[in-house]
Amino acid sequence: MLLKNNTHKIFCIGLNKTGTTSLGMFLEQQGSLVESQRKGELLLKDYFDRNFNAIINHCKKSHSVVYQDVPFSLPLTYPHLDNAFPESKFILTIRENSDVWFESILKFHSDFYNNGKIPTYESLKNSKYVYPGWSWKLMHDVFINDKSEMYSKNEFVDVYENHVESVKNYFKNNPDKLLIIDVSKNDDLLKLCKWLKIKTDKSSFPHISSKDILSLNYNCKFLKG
Questions:
Q1: What domain count does the chain have?
Q2: Whole-model pTM?
Q3: What pLDDT is attached to residue 225?
Q4: Would you say which domain of life the source belongs to (predicted)?
């Protein structure tokens, strides 16, 4: 079974707020060993140092099959993972459109970092998520060019759309390695199961409320460090 075969890694490479948590939870429910999200988040410095060998070595030493979220989902990582794990598969999660994705990440970050208001440089810098400064480093180096203009829709949408197109272009000559899904669509659950050759009695992906995510009180093992 693909989900339990450690030689066949599965990398979920959709950006944050594209349903990566729901996807990871579903795969875990099917018996897959999903890597701890916190262990991945601690590799952020290696990502920004472009030390992809450290990320690859982490995956080689891990017994997990599925990897999602930072740094595996960030732009530039997936080609290195593909080269290191030629039998791997990649799942790109997307939203209905760029506007829906931006509104989702803006609302979540506003609630998570700044009590419902658009996050500021200070609120991101002072956040203790993972460790102080982690959140600002991620957002600044991936999405925000100027701290005086926080959460510019154009900047965020450009990153999202460029990432989606870059992934599509990279795998265009090897389409069997990539699956693109929208977790809000039940048909895409069937598409995923067929692609991974698994059977399930589920009719939809797990729905995880913002309240559950914000509280960080998950029952899903892969979110615990």
A1: 1
A2: 0.91
A3: 43
A4: Bacteria
